[in-house]
Design brief:
The complex is a heterodimer of chains A (about 200) and B (about 575).
Chain A lengths: L14 H34 L10 H25 L3 H31 L8 H32 L9 H27 L3
Helix pairs in contact in A: 1-4, 1-5, 2-3, 2-5, 3-4, 4-5
Chain B lengths: L1 H8 L4 H31 L6 H6 L11 H20 L1 H15 L8 H20 L31 H30 L12 H32 L11 E2 L2 E2 L7 H35 L6 H15 L14 H13 L1 H15 L8 H23 L2 H7 L3 H31 L5 H27 L19 H31 L48
Antiparallel strand pairs in B: 1-2
Helix pairs in contact in B: 2-4, 2-5, 2-6, 2-17, 5-7, 5-8, 5-9, 5-15, 6-7, 7-8, 8-9, 8-10, 9-10, 9-12, 9-13, 9-15, 10-12, 12-13, 13-15, 13-16, 15-16, 16-17
The chains are: A mainly alpha (about 200), B mainly alpha (about 575).
Chain lengths: ~200, ~575
């Protein structure tokens, strides 16, 4: 026996778009809490003992930061082209952002490889441990958003996106910017505060 | 087959997912209950040779007598299953999923696929946790709080501290992920999917409670996840976040250096205290709705009820230190945490006062749902009052880690929430399954459970007053605890009776699902939208318009215009 099903009127216009952004902001809040918890653990752990060592900052780190910043700028340009119904340029710029995003993730792998080669391991000292945890957690989030970015790219090249179908692109881009800002925060934390 | 898969396994329908959560939690609840019965048997009869124990745990109960390690393993699994898979899952995942959308006039949750993912992630988490029973060494010993160094040191710390503890951490990390998915969905649905006219202050208090609970979950589970990752790395990757220098376990020195177990306590309790409200806040919403319905009166002080829940949620995040009064913290910190903790008494008292105000002068109908709601108010007050005692450092130093604490948190977090679940089940079963639960069986279930829980937990307060430590597997070894054996036996026998009567509830569920009398569309003459069979175009009034002067009937549904 199942109860009588509900009958529903159609959703009001714009509801899906608003809901997508609200979900994004809620997701961002939980990510802030996650990294906030890592930060407070880092501060407490540093004060608990005298074994703290800062993490070296290879040049590749700055290159990666530049690539991520560039991907954000390019994604933003793409988003504006889509809003203005310029789908050809949107496709160019979005392809560029997707490529730059992939480049950042690949280069992060290279960065960790170089640190390991230099003898900086996860368990070398608390500074290196938090560096790996923070950057890996960031990369996992970023990779998830990149997969979405890639999916949107597959829709873009089939011209399935347009000014009235751009919520995914908008939300993805804002999320990408957020992860860029989070990266800058992590750089400040590890490179500036961690080496002070 | 395809229909089965899409309808049950991969359903994105909020009602199906709500029922899936409900069934999972009932199953988890009975597993947790069975573990508690086994523990109480051992506490009352520690020397008894019980063949079933030996069959179930050949290494943990050789000759049928439980080892202290097995007792701790059962205690850990009981606490974890109950706290996460019953108290966190039914109120929000079960009832919240089913009723939040239709109470606000939405056709589904805002993100149905994320909703499905959330349930299956929870299910996976439960399986991973249960797997801890079956690996070498068995389930972990470190309690649901998983305090290091015990939880971080690895297999040398005891049976269960190897793979069992690792599975526990992985399970909790997966659960955190599931809860975060669910929270995002609840928040988005509440804010964006309300039907026209459903302003925030027209929402039923159930919706407010689920929304606030989702906010708490969003902030709290992210922190627990971070803590879990650090703990896992201490165990598996050789880091030293929680393990101090020079730690000696079982005559072996650990290589870790510089960590501090207190860091875990801070991170855990930043989650752990709000977790109490994750468990109990939905109950507050449910009970408010049911009291109003069966008193045929509006909720007394609707807006103060909302503000009180927001205040409880906010204060809940800044009181975690009261779990750590004896950790050596600065006395001024203790003072601050104590004052903030006692402040929670104010919004809690507002809620209690308003529940009584709702009942005052009402035309009370003592249905089973109403009885369990009244029971909720009773145990909430009982458990809350002992919270005021434990919130004071000078008293907590004595009571810490005694049975007083066990009695307190079972009352306020466990029993109160479970009573709200029973109330909700009796109230919403007709809407969920189209049939009525048996009221006579329900009343018998209520009265025995109500007396039973007091019989179980009040003696524990007295045992705590006498200094009885918690987590001991056998009290008969200590002379100063000998006199308390009678209290524990009484407690245990009440537990056996109470546990047995839950089978009556299960039988009622199964029988009524198949043979119960068919339910009318709105059997309780309620005002909220879930009792409609269609989503209205708009709502015109608040959620508790009972006994409106001048109306022809004694309730006005939210979609009906004033006459």
């Amino acid at each position: 026996m199942t109860p009588t099903p509900h009958v529903h009127p159609p959703s009001p216009p714009g509801q899906h778009r608003r809901a997508s952004f609200t979900a994004l902001y809620a997701g961002m809040a939980s990510i802030i809490m996650l990294f906030g918890a890592f930060t407070s653990a880092m501060v407490v752990r540093r004060g608990a003992s005298k074994d703290w060592r800062g993490t070296p900052a290879p040049q590749l780190l700055w290159v990666n930061t530049a690539v991520l910043a560039a991907s954000s700028v390019v994604a933003e340009r793409a988003r504006r082209h889509l809003r203005n119904n310029d789908r050809v340029h949107f496709n160019y710029w979005w392809s560029g952002a997707t490529l730059l995003g992939a480049g950042f993730i690949a280069a992060q792998g290279l960065l960790w490889r170089r640190l390991v080669d230099a003898g900086v391991y996860l368990n070398s000292n608390p500074g290196s441990a938090f560096f790996y945890i923070g950057t890996v957690a960031h990369a996992l989030h970023l990779f998830g958003v990149w997969l979405w970015m890639f999916y949107l790219w597959t829709k873009a090249v089939r011209l399935q996106l347009g000014p009235s179908r751009r919520t995914g692109v908008d939300v993805c881009t804002v999320f990408w910017h957020f992860l860029g800002v989070l990266w800058l925060y992590l750089m400040f934390l590890f490179i500036y505060w961690g080496n002070r | 087959m395809r229909t089965f898969l899409s309808r049950y396994l991969f359903s994105t329908d909020h009602k199906t997912i709500g029922i899936q959560y409900f069934v999972l939690s009932v199953l988890a609840g009975f597993v947790g209950l069975a573990l508690s019965v086994v523990m109480r048997i051992h506490l009352s009869y520690p020397e008894a040779k019980i063949r079933l124990f030996e069959i179930l745990w050949p290494n943990g109960a050789p000759g049928g007598v439980m080892t202290p390690e097995l007792y701790l393993a059962l205690l850990t699994m009981h606490g974890t299953i109950m706290a996460f898979f019953l108290l966190t899952t039914v109120p929000l995942g079960g009832f919240g999923n089913y009723f939040l959308p239709i109470q606000i006039g939405a056709h589904d949750m805002a993100l149905p696929r994320l909703n499905m993912l959330s349930f299956w992630t929870t299910f996976l988490s439960f399986l991973v946790l249960l797997a801890a029973f079956f690996v070498e060494g068995g389930a972990p010993l470190s309690g649901w709080t998983a305090y290091p160094p015990l939880s971080a040191a690895g297999p040398i710390a005891g049976p269960g501290q190897g793979t069992g503890q690792t599975l526990w951490i992985v399970s909790i990390a997966i659960f955190c992920l599931a809860s975060l998915f669910g929270s995002i969905n609840f928040i988005t649905t509440t804010l964006e999917m309300r039907v026209k006219g459903m302003s925030l202050f027209r929402m039923p208090l159930t919706v407010w409670a689920w929304f606030i609970t989702a906010l708490i979950s969003l902030f709290a589970f992210a922190v627990l996840m971070a803590a879990g990752i650090l703990l896992l790395l201490d165990r598996e990757a050789g880091t030293s976040f929680f393990l101090p220098t020079g730690l000696l376990i079982n005559d072996r020195a650990l290589p870790n250096q510089g960590g501090t177990p207190l860091l875990w306590q801070h991170l855990f309790w930043f989650f752990g205290h709000p977790e109490v409200y994750i468990a109990v806040l939905p109950g507050m919403g449910i009970v408010s709705t049911i009291l109003a319905n069966f008193a045929r009166k509006p909720v007394f002080g609707y807006k103060p009820m909302v503000w009180a829940m927001l205040a409880i949620a906010g204060l809940g995040f800044i009181v975690w230190g009261h779990h750590m009064f004896i950790s050596g913290m600065n006395p001024y910190s203790s003072l601050a945490f104590s004052v903030l903790t006692l402040t929670i008494g104010v919004p809690s008292a507002i809620k209690t006062f308003n529940w009584l105000g709702t009942l005052w002068g009402g035309r009370i109908q003592l249905t089973t749902a109403m009885l369990f709601s009244l029971g909720f108010v009773s145990v909430f007050v009982t458990g809350g009052l002992t919270g005021i005692i434990l919130g004071q450092p000078s008293l907590d130093i004595y009571f810490h880690d005694t049975y007083f604490v066990v009695g307190h948190f079972h009352m306020i977090m466990g029993v109160a929430s479970v009573f709200a679940m029973f109330a909700a089940t009796f109230y919403w079963f007709p809407r969920m399954f189209g049939r009525m639960l048996n009221e006579k069986l329900g009343r018998v279930h209520f009265y025995i459970t109500f007396l039973g829980v007091y019989g179980i937990f009040i003696p524990m307060h007295f045992a705590g007053l006498a200094g009885n430590p918690r987590r001991y597997a056998d009290f008969t070894q200590f002379e100063f605890l000998q006199d308390l054996t009678i209290l524990h036996k009484f407690s245990s026998h009440c537990a056996f009776t109470t546990a047995a009567v839950q089978l009556l509830f299960l039988a009622n569920l199964i029988y009524s699902y198949r043979r119960g009398p068919l339910a009318k569309d709105n059997p309780w003459n309620a005002t909220t939208l879930e009792w409609l069979n269609k989503t209205p175009d708009a709502v015109h009034c608040g959620a508790y318009e009972y006994s409106v002067p001048g109306d022809t009937k004694d309730f006005r549904m939210q979609h009906e215009e004033a006459r």
